[in-house]
Specification:
The structure holds two protein chains of two kinds. By secondary structure, chain A is an all-alpha fold. Chain A is 74% helix and 0% strand. Chain B is an alpha/beta fold. The chains are: A mainly alpha, B alpha/beta.
């Protein structure tokens, strides 16, 4: 328990010490703080669970030296979830960051453009329509649902090009519709919904390496691909007319990057469930740390996303053992107030 | 003539703004499009800059249909500064101007000395060098507009199109921007096409004026031939007197307010 209580501390600590430093140095120290926190949380996440182990135990387990306690638990239960936190956090944060750039809306995130709820509805439909199917089909259905919902959103928003504002509005509408469908199915068929509910709450409970291996290829391929588009995304930020005037095929770039980021989010959500606020908050924190250039802030957003996931999942496992809280619930509980705090801060500083 | 629109029909969705509109931009001059609100002057400018594809007719750049050229290729020949400009959050002037090199960028190639020179030159010629590390959102209106113009100049094109570059600016900043464009035309032989609201500014700075009403070109030529009492009545629907600018000798339109129209007509103009 002590480990959890002290774990989130590294991030805010440098801020207090560096209050009188230049903004540039302060930013660098905060960035270093995020890096250190990531390393610390990775270790803590391996230690904490139904039974909490010491750093030495973790070392022995990971190196496979055969000494120390809990080798099996650490490598078979804690390690997969730590790795999963990394890929889920990176995937959601990069996807959300790209969407915020493409839709030019700071509130854009996988759940705003309808992807999360589309995936959720598909997952629940599969559970109810094909109750005999193995639960391993849920990720496949969720992935397809996420993809389908963005196709619907894009098509409905398209009128001589899909304007960012229309994409956001249609996305919210489609998301709400899917959410209504989810709620209806949950109320109508409450008995066989437990598998779907676990998924919807975004719990990483009892995940093994297979979830990690499902997500890893998507993150490994799509994140570098999106970074390749970084300077084009910067150009989109100047507005459609100026971007087009600078020779950017605006509509094509928007379609490609939106599709790639939605695919990334669908892949993550399909395996890990609906985890809220990481895709929304992590890019915001990253932009405050390193500014708005996609090439610099997307990787930082990935780090912050991973950190949020590690903190949330560690709390989920360690807060009330052996009971598990859903990780998605913790990210929302951490993310939402922090997001409000960010908004009030930018409102004061910016005001433009 | 490098840039022209040949009997284009322009429309937003189903709303037709202009039919059979032809505009030939004179090379090496400052051209200004004027006309009342909704006359299609901004629409025409967007069409010339290939931002709006004509339903019929074509826009021709250097002898080729502009929509058959790659948009990057067009961006190396023609720069457009739209009316609504949004600077990315906390970006410096220098970083903003670097966007002007986007048409030359290639994800596999890092910026070279030609890019660097173009950016330095654009900063210098717009008087923005000293502001290069300042954030765009901290600049005055005039300084900011200069930074945006520097972005266009960094594109290294001879053709520069601007949609109402003086809107939202105080009069001193308006003159500042127009003087800059005048110098760019005179010293760098840039062909400039812009939309302006103020007919007197058009008369002062334009070597060629296009007058639009309801999507048709009703007259064009130098300010002296275009800016007449009849034109102001027919196109803008106002009564006016055309004087001679005491310094530049260009025509100067002085509107007569509605209540005094009868008096003006009767040549009983003295103070009421």
């Amino acid at each position: 328990m002590t480990a959890i209580a002290t774990a989130p501390a590294p991030a805010p600590a440098p801020a207090v010490r560096t209050r009188h430093l230049t903004p540039e140095r302060r930013r660098r120290m905060l960035l270093a703080g995020v890096g250190v926190a990531c390393v610390v949380m990775t270790l803590v996440s391996l230690m904490v669970g139904a039974v909490t182990y010491s750093p030495a135990d973790v070392w022995h387990a990971v190196t496979g030296s055969g000494q120390g306690e809990g080798g099996f638990v650490i490598t078979h239960f804690h390690l997969p979830r730590m790795l999963l936190c990394w890929v889920v956090g990176i995937g959601l944060a990069v996807s959300g960051g790209v969407m915020q750039g493409v839709i030019r809306n700071p509130l854009a995130a996988p759940n705003i453009v309808g992807v999360t709820h589309g995936a959720g509805l598909a997952a629940i439909l599969v559970v109810h329509v094909l109750p005999t199917m193995p639960s391993s089909l849920i990720p496949v259905a969720a992935f397809a649902g996420g993809q389908l919902s963005i196709v619907v959103v894009y098509a409905a928003a398209y009128r001589r090009g899909a304007s960012p504002a229309r994409l956001a509005l249609v996305g919210v509408a489609v998301g709400a519709l899917c959410n209504a469908g989810i709620l209806f199915l949950l109320v109508r068929y409450p008995l066989n919904s437990s598998a779907a509910l676990t998924w919807l709450a975004g719990s990483l409970y009892a995940r093994d390496m297979s979830s990690f291996w499902q997500i890893l290829p998507w993150v490994a391929v799509l994140v570098p691909l999106l970074l390749h588009y970084a300077h084009r995304l910067d150009t989109l930020g100047l507005g459609d007319d100026l971007a087009a005037g600078l020779g950017e095929p605006v509509e094509r770039t928007r379609l490609i990057t939106l599709f790639l980021s939605v695919t990334l989010a669908s892949a993550v959500v399909a395996s890990a469930g609906t985890i809220g606020f990481v895709g929304l908050v992590a890019p915001h924190i990253a932009r405050r740390l390193v500014g708005g250039r996609h090439l610099t802030y997307l990787p930082v957003a990935g780090l912050v996303g991973a950190l949020l996931m590690l903190v949330a999942d560690t709390i989920a496992r360690g807060a009330d053992p052996p009971l598990e809280l859903p990780c998605g619930l913790i990210t929302s509980v951490i993310g939402a107030p922090y997001f409000l705090y960010l908004l009030t801060k930018t409102g004061k500083a910016g005001g433009r | 003539m490098r840039l022209q629109a040949e009997s284009v029909e322009l429309a937003y969705d189903d709303k037709v703004i202009a039919r059979d509109l032809s505009i030939t931009v004179p090379d090496g001059k400052i051209s200004v499009l004027i006309g009342p609100n909704g006359s299609g002057k901004s629409t025409a400018l967007r069409a010339l800059a290939r931002l709006l594809k004509p339903n019929q007719g074509s826009v021709v750049l250097d002898g080729k249909s502009i929509h058959e050229m790659s948009t990057k290729e067009v961006a190396r020949r023609l720069a457009i500064l739209p009316q609504m400009l949004v600077a990315p959050e906390s970006i410096t002037v220098e970083d903003l101007v670097w966007f002007g090199r986007h048409p030359y960028r290639n994800s596999l190639r890092s910026p070279g000395s030609a890019d660097k020179e173009a950016v330095e030159w654009a900063l210098d010629v717009t008087g923005s060098t000293a502001l290069r590390h300042r954030h765009v959102d901290q600049l005055s209106g005039g300084q900011r507009q200069r930074a945006w113009i520097a972005l266009c100049l960094a594109q290294g094109t001879d053709l520069i199109l601007l949609d109402e570059p003086t809107t939202f600016l105080d009069i001193a900043y308006q003159m500042d921007v127009l003087d800059l464009l005048h110098d760019l035309n005179r010293d760098q032989q840039k062909t400039i096409v812009m939309v302006l609201h103020d007919v007197n500014q058009a008369a002062e700075y334009a070597q060629h004026v296009f007058v639009l009403r309801d999507g048709t070109l009703v007259s064009e030529g130098d300010a002296e031939s275009v800016l007449t009492c009849d034109m102001m009545r027919n196109v803008f629907g106002i009564e006016s007197q055309i004087l001679v600018h005491p310094v530049s000798g260009k025509p100067l339109c002085v509107p007569v307010k509605g209540r005094q129209r009868a008096l003006a007509d009767a040549r009983l103009a003295p103070a009421v």
